[in-house]
Amino acid sequence: MPEMKPNLTANMNTNLAKVKPANILVFDKEISSVPDIVKLTVGEPDFNVPDVAKQAAINAINNNDSHYAPGAGSVALRQAISHFMQDRYDLTYDPETEITVTIGATEAIFASLFTLLNPGDEVLIPTPTFPLYATMVEMLGGKAITVPTAAPNFALSPAQLKAAINAHPTAKAIVLNYPSNPTGVTYSSDELADLADILAQTNLVVISDEIYSELVYTGRHVSIAKFLPGQTIILNGASKAGAMTGYRIGFIAGPAGLMQRIGVAHSIMITSPSDPAMAAAVPIFGSEAGRQATLEMKAAYQERRDYLTSRLTKLGFTVATPTGAFYLFVKLPADQGTDDVAFATRLAKEGQVATIPGSFFGAGGEGYLRLSYATSMENLQLAIQRITNFLNH
């Protein structure tokens, strides 16, 4: 095996040194060796890809759909996404100039930030939230400015937004993620309108990660782009709505002026997405069969959410109001202290239930756990039984 010449370390991008191993992955790996552990850690649907999507991929392969696609994604998929945005959220995006298909939502985040940031630029990020946003900002030489939100619902308030803008008047962008990973909380139409009124007075680009938009349990998902179309970039994809995490199909939608620049960065990074994967995503976004498959999954998630919420509340946990996604963010019982890492470690090793410490998701998450209910009801019932035994031990 070759060993790198030691002096080559000095040749590397110094911003990469800021990127530390993700706490979530490190912790998950550490506790995965516990025998017979029930894992409520991974944010990945436990359902199979809908048959309509599988067949579309098979057809694409059999029809030799194996050549370079347009950099922005296949025309068929961009048209399906355009239909999806109009049908579900009453938003109009031109498939030719305002939609780009990405390699999952992860590339969508990176391409958006890469397009916007110069060294030293600031990005406002309400927390608790998915830690990858801050990691990418730092890796690109920017500064992640966390804006801690308040329990019990962890939603950014107008007052908090105004304070953050006043303290960082030259910030380039703000990242919103709703329904939220890790809290499962989303915003109402009125709440988004209030935030949009403030943001409209700035030049902040709103990077709105709405990957869980199809998993809203009360009412309908509303995008902040409804109120602020000229300065909002929407990130979404097929991973959660279609249980297609391995197909790696995401998308970005926004005004043409922003999307033209994002498209340049995107095309240099990846050339174009995979043809069969894009073909599989077309019916997820553009057909009634795809919509029904998502609704069936959502109904199962809602049943699991209600079960977990009820049982954990009875055990003394305080649950943030989970209105979307497939996570619960729960505060430790009063007699268990506030050290979420220590509690989660003991629960895994002694109680055989794996969760993620809330502090891994940034300021405000201390003393909480994130539980994913993207697993079977049988696993959830076993987890509750084990948590009960652990607390009573």
UniProtKB/TrEMBL annotation:
InterPro entries: Aminotransferase_I/II_large, AspAT/PAT-like, NHTrfase_class1_PyrdxlP-BS, PyrdxlP-dep_Trfase, PyrdxlP-dep_Trfase_major, PyrdxlP-dep_Trfase_small
Pfam families: Aminotran_1_2
SUPFAM superfamilies: PLP-dependent transferases
Cofactor(s) essential for the protein: pyridoxal 5'-phosphate
This protein's UniProt keywords: Aminotransferase, Pyridoxal phosphate, Transferase
UniProt-listed Enzyme Commission number(s): 2.6.1.-
GO molecular function, one term: transaminase activity
Residue span(s) of domain Aminotransferase class I/classII large: 36-387
Family: Belongs to the class-I pyridoxal-phosphate-dependent aminotransferase family.
PANTHER family: AMINOTRANSFERASE, ASPARTATE AMINOTRANSFERASE
UniProt name for this protein: Aminotransferase
